[in-house]
Specification:
The complex is a heterodimer of chains A (about 525) and B (about 300). In chain A, about 45% of the residues lie in helices and about 15% in strands. Chain A is α/β, with parallel strands linked by helices. Chain A has two domains: about 170 residues, Periplasmic binding protein-like II (D-Maltodextrin-Binding Protein, domain 2); about 230 residues, Periplasmic binding protein-like II (D-Maltodextrin-Binding Protein, domain 2, 3-Layer(aba) Sandwich), CATH 3.40.190.10. In chain A, the strands form four sheets. A six-stranded mixed sheet of chain A has the order 2-1-3-12-4-15. In chain A, strands 5, 6, 9, 10, 11 and 16 form a six-stranded mixed sheet that branches. In chain A, strands 7-8 form a two-stranded antiparallel sheet. In chain A, a hairpin with a 4-residue loop joins strand 7 and strand 8. In chain A, helix 5 runs parallel beside helix 12. The longest helix of chain A has 28 residues. About 0% of the residues of chain A have low confidence. With about 300 residues, chain B is mostly helical. Chain B folds into two domains: about 30 residues, no CATH class; about 230 residues, Orthogonal Bundle (MetI-like fold), CATH 1.10.3720. Chain B is about 75% helix and about 0% strand. Chain B has 15 helices and no strands. In chain B, helix 5 packs across helix 14. The radius of gyration of chain B is 26 Å and the shape is globular. Classes of the chains: A alpha/beta (about 525), B mainly alpha (about 300). The interface between A and B is medium-sized, with 27 and 34 residues.
Chain lengths: ~525, ~300
């Protein structure tokens, strides 16, 4: 009897001790599930909406990725037009804050202030081994560009990770109506005089045949980003970075500015530039040319003319030292997101966002559904996805993640590393001429001005921020007003020295000096 | 004597001759110009909404529609989101109208009772927030703390009381003779009965004025929804209209992203249609308010003229 009781007690103890081990085993298998609330704007895609996310298989795969890290995501989506007001009101009042928010509409000075007040979590303290390793290996520039002077990074961003190789960047160019040149028997202009004469011939010859001399160039006169300004060797903004010398400069100090203004004024005097706001010239089939991406394919359909063809071109040596081209880099950091709380869940979410799997979901979608791996090991998006109607893909659910959430509720993640054969990839582009032109010219011009200049400056410190804030609007506004006035003839070109002096009085030199410091800091990274 | 002559001369100088054709012509011309300036923008939008999408895109149609194109209206009628927003607006208009009229009557009547203690204090208490608001963030905090954020109540409750309309109602009630109320008291009525059976029937003109102000105001409002409602399913019509007009967020036409020339040409036409839909939508959303006016006009004129004559 005693033995039986002893056996029972021992058996009971054995069962209890085994049971006590079970929860521990479960804990090792899956971490405690945490909920991360997310607040973001609706997708800009016409057909694929975050509101409908549950119907897309790719959303479930993304949720599974979060679940693997022990995170459940609850998303609140707001219409895009309303989002900026909503997020600003919530942050200003400190209520209704989600753990993670798209804060792209808040300026970085305010974000730094909120970070220092403890409203935003420092992202650098949340990065764990997985995300840190991925960032270090692929998108090191993201942390460098967004770490502020106190050593913290209060937001994280969408990323495009490519190389700094200029061959993989997107050039911009002036485009001209090739079909109208052909119609008039004109060759592609090679000098600025030929360009002006070609425009005059189109304008005065009523080349669109609507009975009015309404053919014009579509250019923003208040901006240096006209493409034509770059023929004259000018930078693309009121300050710009000369990448050849790593020097921050301003077009206002360049002697070529006089030639540019004189040439543009001549075009205005001959009614060759569209001066209307909210222009409808494109839909009236009246735009001779403009500055755009060299490889664009969207201008032609907007003309309503089936023969329309905008050809990118460059006029070399308009002045000595000219020949500059605006180029977008192939690696980008854009659209800011921030965490306001729930640090552990935030930390786990970063592991998801900065991973190769997440990039594939954003950029390629689901394997064997939207993309496949070919015999060379290259990732290929199926033709009926990359070259199809969004409407149809929204209907059958075969979408890329980036269409639905990239840069809206979650960061976008893209790369061109997977394009192993660049030539083969470019051959698939819809317009061979434009593509070849882009390939040909991109390395040709040794002095490069770039769009997205923020990619080459470090975050300003408090003092630098104050100088920027004190001068930026005044200088920018005055620069735009005076450039327009000079080109239109409202200001005499003889007054140029006085205008430049006024810009100096507004703090242009201090402003340039700050950006030079920021670029110098950037170079030390 | 001199004074009499002076008055006669003054009268002569200020005299407006009845039936002067020149004066009539000038007044008619000025009125016509004012009418044109007022009505033409609306007419222009109507013309654009009826013109072909290509003509509407150029905005160079001025007086007669270029072609007759009703497809954009057909697309609007088929759009379920518009009808939902329409329904929401009708709920907001009707509920705010009822609540505001009731609150106006109930709050204005006591303020007309002579001898009521603290009456002046209450009037001043009402006037201060009429002139000075708390600001957007305090209001936002109030709405969120009351649990009304992202609900229909966020628009209905704050709009239920309008101090300006209470003052209007009070002014009208004050103009009624005291004998009306006193005779009712002699017949044994209490204050509630006086308000319900004696005063309410005779304040129709001011009710019409407040009604039309409320209907137009609520119909055209969108900012409160912008701040307090992120759920598009409860947003009013003007938020939807704003989205289409200002941000082109909602592309009602089915613009596709095809790459062949035929498909692109079709897409461009659809895009132009999307622009034209904006004009059609302005007309579509304005019509109910335009139709509302005639029903209130008789009382409205009388109510607005309130207090303009002293006899």
């Amino acid at each position: 009897m005693k033995n039986r009781i002893l056996s029972l007690v021992l058996a009971l103890l054995l069962v209890l001790s085994a049971a006590s081990f079970l929860p521990a085993a479960a804990d090792d298998a899956a971490p405690e599930l945490l909920t991360l609330t997310v607040f973001g704007p609706e997708s800009s895609n016409t057909y694929v909406h975050l509101e409908d996310r549950e119907k897309y298989p790719i959303w479930q795969v993304l949720m599974d990725k979060f679940a693997e890290k022990g995170v459940t995501v609850e998303v609140e989506v707001v219409a895009r037009d309303q989002y900026d007001v909503a997020v600003q009101t919530r942050l200003a009042s400190g209520t209704q804050l989600a753990d993670m928010m798209n804060v792209n509409s808040i300026n970085t000075n305010d974000l730094v202030r909120m970070g220092q007040q403890g409203i935003l979590l420092p992202v650098n303290t949340l990065l764990r081994e997985d995300a840190s390793a991925f960032i270090k290996e692929n998108v090191d520039f993201m942390t460098k560009l967004n770490t502020c002077y106190d050593g913290n990074m209060y937001w994280f961003t969408s990323i495009m990770y490519g190389t700094t190789d200029i061959q993989e960047s997107s050039p911009m160019a002036v485009v001209i109506r090739q079909d109208w040149l052909d119609k008039l028997g004109l060759a592609l202009p090679t000098t600025i005089e030929e360009f002006k004469n070609a425009c005059l011939a189109m304008h005065e010859g009523d080349v669109n045949g609507n009975g009015a001399n309404d053919e014009v160039l579509s250019l923003k006169l208040s901006s240096f980003h006209t493409g034509i300004a770059q023929w004259f060797g000018l930078g693309a903004d009121f300050i710009y970075l000369d990448q050849a010398t790593d020097t921050v400069l301003t077009p206002w100090y360049q002697p070529e500015l006089v030639d540019y203004i004189t040439f543009m004024h001549d075009l205005v005097e001959n009614d060759l530039i569209d001066l209307t706001t909210n222009s409808t010239k494109a839909s009236e089939n009246a735009v001779i040319g403009q500055r755009t991406y060299a490889t664009q394919t969207w201008l032609e359909p907007a003309t309503n003319d089936p023969d329309a063809y905008y050809r990118p071109f460059m006029i070399e040596n308009a002045v000595e030292g000219g020949n500059r081209m605006i180029v977008e880099p192939s690696y980008l950091s854009w659209t800011n997101f921030a965490f306001t709380g729930n640090a552990e869940a935030a930390s786990r979410a970063l592991d998801v966002f900065y991973s190769e799997d997440y990039m594939k979901l954003c950029w390629l979608g689901l394997e064997d559904s939207t993309y496949y791996v070919d015999e060379n090991g290259e990732y290929v998006v199926y033709d009926d996805v990359s070259n199809s109607y969004w409407e149809d893909r929204a209907a059958d659910g075969r979408i890329l993640g980036g269409w639905m959430w990239g840069g809206f509720a979650f960061p976008q993640s893209r790369t061109n590393y997977y394009v192993k054969d660049l030539d083969a990839s470019l051959a698939k582009a819809p317009d061979d001429y434009k593509t070849n032109y882009a390939k040909e010219v991109i390395g040709k011009y040794d002095k490069i001005s770039t769009n997205f200049e923020s990619m080459f400056y470090a975050m300003p410190n408090e003092e630098q921020s104050e100088i920027i804030a004190a001068h930026q609007n005044d200088i920018k506004t005055y620069s735009e007003e005076m450039l327009s006035a000079l080109i239109l003839g409202d200001e005499d070109i003889e007054n140029l020295p006085a205008i430049v002096q006024q810009l100096k009085d507004l703090g242009l030199d201090d402003y340039i000096a700050v950006y030079q410091q920021l670029h110098d800091t950037y170079l030390t990274y | 004597m001199n004074g009499q002559m002076g008055n006669a001369a003054l009268r002569h100088r200020n005299r407006i001759r009845n039936g002067s054709r020149v004066a009539d012509a000038i007044i008619c011309c000025v009125s016509a110009v004012l009418c044109f300036i007022t009505l033409y923008p609306m007419y222009y939008i109507l013309v654009l909404s009826l013109s072909s999408p290509q003509a509407a895109a150029t905005m160079k149609v001025y007086f007669v529609p270029d072609g007759l194109y009703l497809d954009s209206y057909a697309m609007l009628v088929k759009n379920s989101q518009i009808w939902r927003a329409y329904g929401n607006t009708l709920i907001y208009v009707s509920s705010e109208l009822v609540l505001r009229l009731v609150s106006c009557l109930l709050m204005a009547y006591p303020l007309t009772v002579k001898g009521l203690r603290g009456r002046k204090f209450v009037v001043i208490y009402l006037l201060i927030p009429m002139y000075f608001g708390g600001g957007m963030i305090p209001n936002y905090l109030l709405i969120t703390k009351l649990g009304m954020y992202n609900t229909m109540w966020a628009l209905i409750i704050p709009g239920a009381i309008s101090i300006w309309h209470i003052i209007l109602m009070r002014t009208y009630l004050t103009s009624l003779p005291d004998s009306l109320r006193e005779s009712a008291f002699i017949d044994g009525a209490n204050h509630f009965q006086v308000l319900a059976y004696i005063y309410t029937p005779v304040v129709k003109p001011i009710i019409a004025v407040i009604s039309i102000y409320t209907i137009v105001g609520v119909w055209n409002s969108w900012f409160s929804s912008m701040i307090y409602q992120t759920n598009t399913k409860i947003q009013p019509l003007q938020m939807y209209l704003r989205r289409v007009l200002v941000d082109m967020e909602v592309d009602i036409s089915s613009v596709k992203s095809g790459m062949t020339m035929d498909e692109i040409a079709a897409a461009v036409k659809q895009n132009q249609l999307a622009h034209q839909i904006r004009y059609s939508m302005i007309i579509f959303t304005t019509l109910p308010v335009l139709f509302t006016y005639p029903f209130f006009q008789k009382h409205f004129v009388k109510g607005v003229m309130l207090g303009s004559l002293k006899e």
